[in-house]
Amino acid sequence: MAYSRGRCLLQYWLDYRGISQAEFARRSGYSKRIVSHWCNDERKMSVEAMYTAAVILGIKMEQLYMWQITVE
Asked: What domains, with CATH codes, occur in the chain?
């Protein structure tokens, strides 16, 4: 069994917590542009970015993406 990241849920969590992309960028130290790419599912977050986002949002890293399961 293997897992792969599906759709990014960062924008969902930002909306849920009432945090704008700009505010998240300020808090995380990442650029507004890269945060926008993540929120629009144009790029995958690094493990370090996922950890940073999880701490800021008060969630588990796994909650930042929809996960797809492949059974071999």
From this structure: 2-70 (1.10.260.40)
